[in-house]
Each structure stands twice: as C-alpha cells, then as structure tokens.
Design brief:
single chain; mainly alpha; MetI-like fold; 0% strand
Length: 322
C-alpha cells in the first residue's frame, strides 16, 4: 500500500528576508550606540566624583570647616536650595505664558515676513551670554524697578511677599527671577514655536471648517497636540534657570536666609551663585562643602528632568495622526 504524497503546506508563512546591513548603516548604528554609552558614562563619572568629593562635608565635626563654621551641612545648604528653587519657580511662572503667547503669535497669527524676523530675533537672544544678562540686570534693570517696587510696597504691602522694606537698589530676588525669566524665554519660545508648527494641518482645517474661530482652533487643535512639547520646553527652561550662575551672582548678595519676601534688600541666593562667590577663597574641607552643594544641585536638576520625562511619557500615546 503506497502512502499518499502530501502537497505543500499552505498554512506556513514565508520567512521574511533578512535585511542586509550596509557599511554605512553599521557605522551610523555603532556611532549612535557609542554616543549614548559616552553620555551615560560621563553622567555616571560626574555623579561618582560629586559623591566621593562630598563625603568630608557630611562629617559630624565641622568646627574646622571655614564655610560651615560649626553648623551641619544640611542646615547650611538648605537656604540656598530654597533660593534656587524659589527664584527658578518665579522665573518659570513669568516666562511660560509669555513664551507660549509669543510662539503662538509667530506660528499662527503673524504675517510670514514678520514671523521670520521674530524667529531670528528669538534665536539670537538665546545666544546672548549669561554675564551680559547679569550686567544688564544689575546696572540697568534693577534701578528701573525701584519705583515699581516702592509702589508695590506702599499699595500691596499687606500681602506678605510685598511687605517689609523695599530695596533702594532694586537688587532683590524678584529682580533676579525676572532676569532669569528673560534668559529662559528664548529657548522656551523656540521649542514651543516648533511644536506648534508640527500640528497636523488637517486638524486645524477641520476645526476652521466646523466654524471655529482662530482662537478656538488654537485651543482645540494646537494646544492639546503641543502639550507635551510645552512641558518639555518649560522643563528645559527651568533646568537652565536652576543652573544659572553669573546672572544671579551679579544681582544678589550671598545671604543664606529663607524668606518669601520679594522686595526686601536681604534675599536668599542660589547654589550656583554661592559656589561661584565662595570657591576662590575655599580650601581643604571648604572645597568639599561647595562640591557637596553642587551634588545637591545635581540631584535637584535630575529630579526636575525625571518629572518632566514622566509628564511627557504620559502623553506619548497621543498622536496628531490619530
């Protein structure tokens, strides 16, 4: 008895042909992988350096430390952490609405020629060195704000943040925050502008076709699509404000106090500013103390970036093509 021959198995899926990697693909893939590894190694090396060099600052005996002067490191660094976060938060609150408004005007309201000129100006402002902003804030901007501060103190002094005695020089935490807001405004505006321009035209045209006004189209189609990009730009600006050194150094005096008042002559300062001011005279354990302050700033900045990535990842499933 003969066994019947079986035909070809039609249920088997044909195997997909393997892609052949060209030399250029291998070079690009290896370069990208190497660049990513270098970034991780550099970040790890910086973290290890800060941790190792910061250990002497946490010694229980700080009597010989000319910066701590007998107090614990956490008690010494806390006012500067507060000043860093406080000044950066005020700068972000001031700059974020302005950046979004300017970016919307450039991308959806301004004529093409005016939009191009404004875009170039914003990009040029992002390239101005921070020391220039600091000199402008200390020598020009602060004296201009003195009458305004006195008016706030006279008319709104019943609000705690505007109470006390207004500074006669204008060099306050509010002035430093406004200078930081001007510094982070260009980069936030540039990012928001590019994100707004990526909004699918079909969404915009559909909103307009349904009878929406220009602002309603922006509110319903542009802003929801660009939400994650706005958060990314805001966090990037906040990261720059947290690490800014020269602008704050030239405006504020190095006082380690905690106060929410915005107009007083005595103001909290930031970690980068205190490191820049105290490092030339630091020696022995004082250097380790300033490095430990840098470690705290590193942790704060890393936490801000981590929160930003978490917020952006929550919007990762949203796509303009959906």
């Amino acid at each position: 008895m003969t066994t019947p021959t079986t035909g070809p198995d039609l249920t088997r899926q044909p195997e997909a042909p393997k892609a052949v990697l060209r030399p250029g693909d291998r070079i690009f893939s290896g370069t990208a992988l190497g660049a990513g590894i270098i970034i991780l190694v550099t970040l790890a090396a910086v973290a290890v350096f800060l941790i190792v060099q910061s250990i002497p600052a946490f010694s229980p005996d700080t009597s010989g430390n000319h910066i701590l002067r007998g107090q614990s490191f956490l008690a010494w660094v806390w006012p500067f952490v507060f000043g860093t976060v406080y000044a950066s938060a005020i700068a972000l609150i001031v700059a974020a609405p302005l950046a979004i408004g300017i970016a919307l005007f450039i991308s959806h309201y301004a004529p093409r020629r005016i939009a191009g000129v404004l875009g170039y100006i914003i990009d040029l402002l992002a390239a101005v060195p921070s020391v220039v902003f600091g000199l402008w804030g200390a020598l020009t901007f602060a004296p201009m704000l003195v009458p305004f501060y006195k008016w706030l103190n006279t008319n709104l002094g019943w609000i705690p943040i505007f109470g006390g005695t207004a500074s006669g020089t204008g060099k306050t935490i509010l002035t430093a925050s406004l200078v930081l807001a001007v510094m982070i405004l260009p980069i936030m505006t540039a990012i928001c502008r590019e994100v707004f321009l990526q909004t699918p035209k079909l969404h915009e045209e559909a909103a307009l076709a349904l009878g929406a006004t220009r602002w309603e189209m922006v509110r319903m189609a542009v802003l929801p699509f660009a939400r994650s990009g706005i958060v990314s730009g805001a966090m990037l600006g906040l990261g720059r404000a947290l690490g800014e050194t020269m602008a704050v150094t030239l405006v504020l005096s190095p006082l380690g106090i905690v106060t929410f008042n915005l107009l007083n002559p005595e103001n909290p300062t930031t970690i980068p500013a205190i490191i820049a001011l105290r490092f030339p005279e630091a020696h022995d354990e004082g250097v380790n103390t300033l490095i430990a302050a840098g470690l705290i700033l590193f942790i704060v900045t890393f936490a801000v970036n981590f929160i930003a990535r978490w917020i952006v990842s929550r919007r990762a499933e949203f796509s303009g093509a959906n």
